[in-house]
User: What shape does this take?
Amino acid sequence: MTRNQIELLVLYQDVDLMLQEAAGEEKTMGFGTEGLEQLQKARADIAKNIDGRFLRTYQRLHTKFKRPIVPVQNDVCLGCFAKLPTSYGEKGRRDQGLYTCEECGRILYWVD
Amino acid sequence: MKITELGKYLKKEHFLPDLKGGSKTAVMEALVQPLVDGGLVKGKSLVLETLSKRETLGSTGIGRGVAVPHCRTMAVSDVHIVVGISKGGVDFAAIDKKTVHLFFLIVAPPVEGNALYLPLLGKIVEMVRDTKLRQAMVGAGDFATFIKIFQGG
Assistant: This one.
Protein backbone atom coordinates (compact mmCIF):
# COMPACT_ATOMS: atom_id res chain seq x y z
CA MET A 1 0.00 0.00 0.00
CA THR A 2 1.31 3.48 -0.86
CA ARG A 3 1.99 5.52 2.22
CA ASN A 4 -0.08 8.60 2.71
CA GLN A 5 2.21 11.22 1.14
CA ILE A 6 1.06 14.17 3.20
CA GLU A 7 1.56 12.19 6.43
CA LEU A 8 5.06 11.25 5.32
CA LEU A 9 5.79 14.89 4.61
CA VAL A 10 4.45 15.82 8.06
CA LEU A 11 6.72 13.19 9.62
CA TYR A 12 9.64 14.61 7.63
CA GLN A 13 8.96 18.10 8.99
CA ASP A 14 8.47 16.81 12.57
CA VAL A 15 11.86 15.06 12.37
CA ASP A 16 13.39 18.28 11.02
CA LEU A 17 12.13 20.13 14.07
CA MET A 18 13.32 17.31 16.34
CA LEU A 19 16.83 17.67 14.93
CA GLN A 20 16.77 21.40 15.63
CA GLU A 21 15.61 21.02 19.24
CA ALA A 22 17.92 18.08 19.97
CA ALA A 23 21.01 20.19 19.74
CA GLY A 24 19.59 22.88 22.02
CA GLU A 25 17.17 22.60 24.92
CA GLU A 26 16.89 18.82 25.04
CA LYS A 27 20.63 18.36 25.41
CA THR A 28 20.62 20.86 28.28
CA MET A 29 17.92 18.80 30.04
CA GLY A 30 20.14 15.76 29.92
CA PHE A 31 18.53 13.77 27.11
CA GLY A 32 20.96 11.74 25.05
CA THR A 33 21.53 12.88 21.48
CA GLU A 34 24.08 10.26 20.50
CA GLY A 35 21.83 9.09 17.69
CA LEU A 36 21.95 12.37 15.81
CA GLU A 37 23.54 10.85 12.73
CA GLN A 38 21.12 7.94 12.81
CA LEU A 39 18.20 10.33 12.96
CA GLN A 40 19.59 12.31 10.05
CA LYS A 41 19.78 9.05 8.12
CA ALA A 42 16.20 8.19 9.12
CA ARG A 43 15.13 11.59 7.82
CA ALA A 44 16.85 10.89 4.51
CA ASP A 45 15.09 7.52 4.34
CA ILE A 46 11.71 9.18 4.87
CA ALA A 47 12.53 11.58 2.02
CA LYS A 48 13.18 8.63 -0.31
CA ASN A 49 9.56 7.57 0.10
CA ILE A 50 8.07 10.98 -0.54
CA ASP A 51 6.74 11.80 -3.97
CA GLY A 52 9.11 14.19 -5.78
CA ARG A 53 6.45 16.84 -6.30
CA PHE A 54 5.61 16.94 -2.58
CA LEU A 55 9.26 17.04 -1.53
CA ARG A 56 10.26 19.74 -4.03
CA THR A 57 7.40 21.94 -2.88
CA TYR A 58 8.43 21.41 0.75
CA GLN A 59 12.08 22.21 0.03
CA ARG A 60 11.21 25.31 -1.98
CA LEU A 61 8.98 26.58 0.83
CA HIS A 62 11.58 25.70 3.46
CA THR A 63 13.84 28.45 2.13
CA LYS A 64 11.10 30.89 3.08
CA PHE A 65 9.38 29.29 6.09
CA LYS A 66 10.80 27.42 9.08
CA ARG A 67 7.77 25.13 8.94
CA PRO A 68 6.42 24.80 5.42
CA ILE A 69 3.51 22.56 6.48
CA VAL A 70 0.89 24.09 8.72
CA PRO A 71 -2.23 22.71 10.34
CA VAL A 72 -5.70 23.74 9.26
CA GLN A 73 -8.37 24.01 11.92
CA ASN A 74 -11.92 25.19 11.36
CA ASP A 75 -10.98 26.05 7.78
CA VAL A 76 -8.27 28.46 8.93
CA CYS A 77 -4.65 28.18 7.81
CA LEU A 78 -2.69 28.32 11.07
CA GLY A 79 0.32 29.67 9.21
CA CYS A 80 -1.20 33.00 8.17
CA PHE A 81 -4.70 32.73 9.69
CA ALA A 82 -6.41 33.14 6.33
CA LYS A 83 -9.88 31.66 6.06
CA LEU A 84 -9.90 28.89 3.47
CA PRO A 85 -12.87 28.04 1.27
CA THR A 86 -14.99 25.27 2.86
CA SER A 87 -14.89 23.30 -0.38
CA TYR A 88 -11.09 23.32 -0.17
CA GLY A 89 -11.26 21.65 3.21
CA GLU A 90 -13.65 18.99 2.00
CA LYS A 91 -11.25 18.09 -0.82
CA GLY A 92 -8.16 18.34 1.37
CA ARG A 93 -9.51 16.02 4.04
CA ARG A 94 -10.71 13.52 1.47
CA ASP A 95 -7.70 13.41 -0.90
CA GLN A 96 -4.89 13.97 1.61
CA GLY A 97 -3.10 15.52 -1.36
CA LEU A 98 -0.83 18.50 -1.84
CA TYR A 99 -2.84 21.62 -1.07
CA THR A 100 -1.29 25.00 -0.43
CA CYS A 101 -2.73 28.10 1.20
CA GLU A 102 -3.85 30.63 -1.37
CA GLU A 103 -2.60 33.45 0.87
CA CYS A 104 0.79 32.36 2.21
CA GLY A 105 1.58 29.38 -0.01
CA ARG A 106 2.33 26.96 2.85
CA ILE A 107 1.35 23.29 2.56
CA LEU A 108 -1.89 22.52 4.39
CA TYR A 109 -2.59 19.62 6.74
CA TRP A 110 -6.13 19.25 8.04
CA VAL A 111 -6.09 18.25 11.69
CA ASP A 112 -9.82 18.34 12.36
CA MET B 1 6.96 26.67 35.60
CA LYS B 2 4.94 26.02 38.75
CA ILE B 3 3.86 22.50 39.67
CA THR B 4 0.23 23.59 39.96
CA GLU B 5 0.43 24.76 36.36
CA LEU B 6 1.91 21.43 35.32
CA GLY B 7 -0.79 19.59 37.26
CA LYS B 8 -3.43 21.06 34.96
CA TYR B 9 -2.13 18.80 32.21
CA LEU B 10 -2.57 15.64 34.23
CA LYS B 11 -5.93 14.02 33.71
CA LYS B 12 -7.52 10.99 35.27
CA GLU B 13 -8.26 9.45 31.87
CA HIS B 14 -4.59 9.88 30.95
CA PHE B 15 -3.33 8.03 34.00
CA LEU B 16 -2.49 4.33 33.59
CA PRO B 17 -1.71 2.83 37.01
CA ASP B 18 -1.13 -0.65 35.60
CA LEU B 19 0.58 -0.09 32.28
CA LYS B 20 0.66 -3.18 30.09
CA GLY B 21 3.26 -4.07 27.52
CA GLY B 22 6.59 -5.77 27.81
CA SER B 23 8.46 -3.93 25.09
CA LYS B 24 9.28 -0.36 24.18
CA THR B 25 6.91 -0.46 21.21
CA ALA B 26 4.05 -1.99 23.18
CA VAL B 27 4.41 0.55 25.98
CA MET B 28 4.45 3.48 23.55
CA GLU B 29 1.29 2.15 21.97
CA ALA B 30 -0.40 1.76 25.35
CA LEU B 31 0.58 5.30 26.35
CA VAL B 32 -0.76 6.82 23.13
CA GLN B 33 -4.04 4.87 23.28
CA PRO B 34 -5.86 7.13 25.81
CA LEU B 35 -5.23 10.08 23.49
CA VAL B 36 -6.61 8.11 20.55
CA ASP B 37 -9.64 7.06 22.60
CA GLY B 38 -10.25 10.67 23.54
CA GLY B 39 -10.12 11.75 19.88
CA LEU B 40 -7.08 13.93 20.62
CA VAL B 41 -4.80 12.64 17.89
CA LYS B 42 -5.17 12.51 14.17
CA GLY B 43 -3.42 9.35 13.11
CA LYS B 44 -2.11 7.08 15.84
CA SER B 45 0.55 5.68 13.51
CA LEU B 46 1.95 9.15 12.83
CA VAL B 47 2.39 9.80 16.55
CA LEU B 48 3.97 6.40 17.13
CA GLU B 49 6.33 6.84 14.21
CA THR B 50 7.41 10.30 15.40
CA LEU B 51 7.97 8.96 18.94
CA SER B 52 9.97 6.10 17.51
CA LYS B 53 12.13 8.54 15.51
CA ARG B 54 12.75 10.50 18.72
CA GLU B 55 14.04 7.29 20.32
CA THR B 56 16.50 6.99 17.42
CA LEU B 57 18.11 10.19 18.63
CA GLY B 58 18.69 8.69 22.07
CA SER B 59 16.57 6.79 24.54
CA THR B 60 14.17 8.91 26.55
CA GLY B 61 14.70 6.41 29.35
CA ILE B 62 16.55 8.92 31.52
CA GLY B 63 17.55 6.44 34.20
CA ARG B 64 16.42 5.65 37.76
CA GLY B 65 13.40 3.78 36.40
CA VAL B 66 11.93 6.73 34.52
CA ALA B 67 11.24 7.38 30.83
CA VAL B 68 9.85 10.52 29.28
CA PRO B 69 8.98 9.64 25.67
CA HIS B 70 8.12 12.86 23.89
CA CYS B 71 7.79 14.52 20.54
CA ARG B 72 6.28 17.38 18.67
CA THR B 73 3.85 16.19 16.08
CA MET B 74 1.26 17.74 13.82
CA ALA B 75 -1.02 14.87 14.76
CA VAL B 76 -2.04 16.76 17.91
CA SER B 77 -3.42 20.26 18.39
CA ASP B 78 -2.57 20.68 22.08
CA VAL B 79 -0.02 19.57 24.64
CA HIS B 80 -0.95 16.27 26.30
CA ILE B 81 0.64 14.21 29.05
CA VAL B 82 -0.06 10.54 29.72
CA VAL B 83 1.35 8.93 32.86
CA GLY B 84 1.92 5.19 33.06
CA ILE B 85 3.17 2.98 35.87
CA SER B 86 4.50 -0.45 35.08
CA LYS B 87 4.64 -2.73 38.10
CA GLY B 88 6.97 -5.25 36.49
CA GLY B 89 9.15 -2.73 34.69
CA VAL B 90 9.99 -2.50 31.01
CA ASP B 91 13.29 -2.69 29.17
CA PHE B 92 13.27 0.73 27.54
CA ALA B 93 16.98 0.85 26.65
CA ALA B 94 17.39 3.43 29.41
CA ILE B 95 20.72 5.19 29.80
CA ASP B 96 21.48 3.30 33.03
CA LYS B 97 20.19 0.02 31.51
CA LYS B 98 17.66 -0.35 34.33
CA THR B 99 14.06 -1.30 33.69
CA VAL B 100 11.55 1.53 33.61
CA HIS B 101 8.55 1.73 35.96
CA LEU B 102 7.41 5.33 35.57
CA PHE B 103 6.49 6.82 32.19
CA PHE B 104 5.53 10.34 31.22
CA LEU B 105 4.45 10.63 27.60
CA ILE B 106 4.43 14.22 26.35
CA VAL B 107 3.19 15.22 22.93
CA ALA B 108 2.79 18.71 21.57
CA PRO B 109 2.06 20.41 18.28
CA PRO B 110 5.01 22.01 16.45
CA VAL B 111 3.74 25.47 17.28
CA GLU B 112 2.04 26.36 20.55
CA GLY B 113 0.78 29.76 21.48
CA ASN B 114 1.94 29.51 25.09
CA ALA B 115 5.19 27.57 24.47
CA LEU B 116 4.64 24.96 27.18
CA TYR B 117 6.23 21.87 25.75
CA LEU B 118 9.87 22.45 26.67
CA PRO B 119 9.16 23.93 30.14
CA LEU B 120 6.85 20.97 30.88
CA LEU B 121 9.49 18.52 29.75
CA GLY B 122 12.15 20.27 31.82
CA LYS B 123 9.98 20.37 34.94
CA ILE B 124 9.14 16.68 34.77
CA VAL B 125 12.80 15.75 34.30
CA GLU B 126 13.67 17.93 37.30
CA MET B 127 10.93 16.43 39.50
CA VAL B 128 11.77 12.78 38.88
CA ARG B 129 15.35 13.36 40.00
CA ASP B 130 13.97 13.51 43.56
CA THR B 131 14.21 9.92 44.83
CA LYS B 132 11.44 10.14 47.44
CA LEU B 133 9.03 11.79 45.05
CA ARG B 134 9.83 9.33 42.29
CA GLN B 135 9.29 6.31 44.52
CA ALA B 136 6.02 7.72 45.83
CA MET B 137 4.78 8.30 42.28
CA VAL B 138 5.61 4.72 41.28
CA GLY B 139 3.69 3.47 44.31
CA ALA B 140 0.57 5.51 43.55
CA GLY B 141 -2.25 3.12 42.79
CA ASP B 142 -4.82 5.68 41.67
CA PHE B 143 -4.99 9.10 40.12
CA ALA B 144 -6.05 10.93 43.30
CA THR B 145 -2.99 9.63 45.14
CA PHE B 146 -0.71 10.37 42.22
CA ILE B 147 -1.86 13.95 41.76
CA LYS B 148 -1.56 14.57 45.51
CA ILE B 149 2.04 13.36 45.45
CA PHE B 150 2.71 15.32 42.30
CA GLN B 151 1.27 18.59 43.58
CA GLY B 152 2.98 18.10 46.89
CA GLY B 153 6.29 17.91 45.12
About this structure: The domain at 9-146 of chain B is CATH 3.40.930.10 (Mannitol-specific EII; Chain A). Chain B has one domain: 9-146. The first helix of chain B runs from residue 3 to 7.
